[in-house]
Amino acid sequence: MNPVMVTRLALSELRGHPGRTLLPGLALLVGVACLIASLMLGDAMSDAVKAGAERVPQSVGVVVSAIPDHNANTANLDDVAKQLAGAPGVAKVVPVQRADVDVLGADGRALPYRVSAAIDPGDPSLNRYALQAGRTPAADGEVAIDKVTAYQRHLAPGTHITLADAGGRPVQVTVSGVLQLGGKADQPFLVVGKDLAAKLDPTFDTTELDLQLTPGTSDITARANITQQLGTGFAVRTGDGERTIQGGDNTVRVLLFLFSILALATSVFVAGATFRAVYLQRQRQTALLRCVGAERSPIVWANLIEAVLTGALAGAVGALLSGVVARLLAWILDVTGVSTMLGATQLEPAALPSIGYFITGILVAAALSAFAAVRPSLAAARVSPLAALRLADEATPERRTVRARTVRGWLLVGAAVVFALGALATQRTIGAPFFALFSGIAAVAGVFGSFGPRVVPFLGRGIGWVAGKVFGPHVRLAGVELGRVPQRAASVAMPLVLASAIVAGAVVLIGTARDISLSRPDPLAADAQISDTGHRPLGPDVLKAAQQPEVNQLLPISGAGAGITVNGARMAVAGIDPAKLDAYLSAMNQPAAAKFGPDSALVDSWRLEDNKLQVGQQITISGLVGGPRTVTIAGAMPKADLDYADVLVGDPKLAPVSAVLVDVKPGFDQSAYRSAVLAALPNAPTVTVDTAAQSSEDTQRNLDLAAVTLMVLLGLSVAVAVTGIGTAMSISVQERRKEVALRRALGVTRMEVTAGILAEAVLLALSGLVGGTILGAVYAELLIVGMGVHTWPSLPWGQLAIGGLAVVLLAVLAAVMPARTASRVVPAAGLAGS
């Protein structure tokens, strides 16, 4: 056959059976829609981050910052600003300043962490943050807030929020504007005026200096002159250079792209299985072509041309639908709380893709469709005419093929066992996770690849038998139907097994890590720690409130604050009562500390090694309110969490009390203690009580959010895998047209036919879910054991049930059209012919 005849043969199938021919493109349509949607959503996320990012104003010619030096005092930029004020070519020096402020929540208490607030320079041309709504703060009682916090708290220009001043007293301010910047990980961001900042935090932190140059001064020349004037310890950059490197964050774009690639790979797998089923339906036609003299090569080329056309059409439709999918993904990210963690909410991707994305969708789908059709086309062309012309609707696989598949399956299962034993033998080493990974791949390929035609129908029959006792015999019959075409059922279930295994394994690992953190609390951590979010001294009222009936021991710690150096190195220094320290350590079942007093100190062991200090050596502590102090090292600090102190001096009057560590009596509720202390301090909103149980709850919330994020991203692959169920049901209905007509003639109602098809789709989905969940849980446990942790895996049944229910609903939606087609079969017409 010449190329023209090959093309006509490919087009004849499209004209004669458009529905059957285009069926393999359904999975590619969804895959391309997910791919382009992820790119569009990533673009929207990147644009949102870029629009809200801190930027150097256009009027700034040079930017100066200090290079941090952890072993000595970093240069003071306020002094540098005075030095540069009269420098040649410098018209104005604008300090870029920030303050740390306390934001009060709806309960009237301060948030756990202080909020970073940029100080407005007072000149709109020098603003570093773009506004989404409203205006910059113009008065003493106004602030601009980031858009994520505004979204979470329903804030808008004109509404009010409450802050705490330097003394810890509530101050109500008005929201004057909403920034395009989005706060990440529940950390708000504010812009405040200088007068308000002085009330909230008098100690400004100057991070950079923006230099406006005189007209005609070259920024490159000015940079060179200023660099020479300041010397080492400073970074001097041009404003244009800073504006060039400031851009968007591509993390989300890359993450979405990687998971969409996984979804696209799943679509290729599903399309290949569908091509195989479609070519099997056309085997009689292929056999007749071979009988009349057609060679194998033209038939293969005709199939590939048909596949390219199918893929191109699927890619075009998928690209056009990508805008809807992108907005749906954005809505899901908002609902699940993932978008607030990423710092961008209420994203609005474009409704339609760009020309570039549209062409990309067509080309990608066409190429992948041809790739997916290669192997099925070769297999279809290799079938002998006599075998294809058998009277049976579907030929029984040859014994040689079955035997080869069985041997391959046992080899893969054996390899999975060997790799699993390798993971157990190499516990606590880098090789254990790799052995577990290879074992999982071999297990999936063996159990659901080679043995899939047996395993999947077996699972379907088992689930159908159980469900049939509740929902009726049509469900049990649907389970039996899965064994009618076992190879197709296994091919459709495989991508769902893979996606389910990844999801189940991930949530089991996350759940187990959460349970381990809850069941094995840190023995060195205090049951509770009382402190002020703004590092304000704790007064006698706080110490009185801390002494609740359930307290076993209290340990006040007097932190010296920031800017303290020990022998020239920055360290956190605190004063403590040695007797109370010993009593606290005894209550925690920890060994007593070395004897020390007002003229001696305990130093953290790693500080001793890092700074080459020795017991008995004298050290000088500088930066204290009372002046420098020389003490002798009495020993190493005990192995307990002591408010992150590096040096403990045996003098509780070294500084005001900054924190109180609490050991609660056994059997008492830490949360109840926290509530009692806070209730006793209604006029101290910035005092917080951090408990070990609360820390575990925060860990659990973060892990749950990670699990939700993973399930949302892997949901793309699951959605593509479910389309395979829809295509399998469509092909099954076409093949069973006479059977359905016969059942209708025997009195089966349309509703019962519909229910049977839907039940078959649900059972196929459940077979993949059950198989994948079991594999994921088993290999999650293998990974846990490989890391040297021996515990039972934690199965988060709630999350798995919600995910499973979503997959079942998607399977039902995918099977609605095939079920409707089956229910409309007229008995007389169906029994008369195809």
Secondary structure elements and their pairing?
Layout: H1 3-16, H2 18-22, H3 25-52, E1 62-66, H4 77-84, E2 90-103, E3 115-119, E4 131-134, E5 142-146, H5 147-153, E6 160-164, E7 170-179, E8 189-192, H6 194-200, E9 205-213, H7 219-230, E10 234-238, H8 239-245, H9 251-281, H10 283-291, H11 296-336, H12 338-342, H13 355-382, H14 385-388, H15 399-425, H16 431-450, H17 452-471, H18 473-481, H19 486-519, E11 528-532, H20 540-546, E12 551-559, E13 565-566, E14 569-570, E15 573-575, H21 578-587, E16 600-603, H22 605-610, E17 618-622, E18 629-636, E19 647-649, E20 659-664, H23 670-679, E21 687-691, H24 692-735, H25 737-745, H26 750-786, H27 797-823, H28 827-832
Parallel strand pairs: 3-8, 5-7, 15-19, 16-18
Antiparallel strand pairs: 1-9, 1-10, 2-3, 2-6, 2-9, 4-7, 5-8, 6-7, 11-20, 11-21, 12-15, 12-20, 13-14, 13-17, 16-19, 17-18
What can you tell me about this protein's structure?
The radius of gyration is 35 Å and the shape is globular. Helix 17 packs across helix 19 and helix 19 crosses helix 26. An 11-stranded mixed beta sheet has the order 14-13-17-18-16-19-15-12-20-11-21. The protein is built from 28 helices and 21 strands. It is of the alpha+beta class. The two termini are about 30 Å apart.
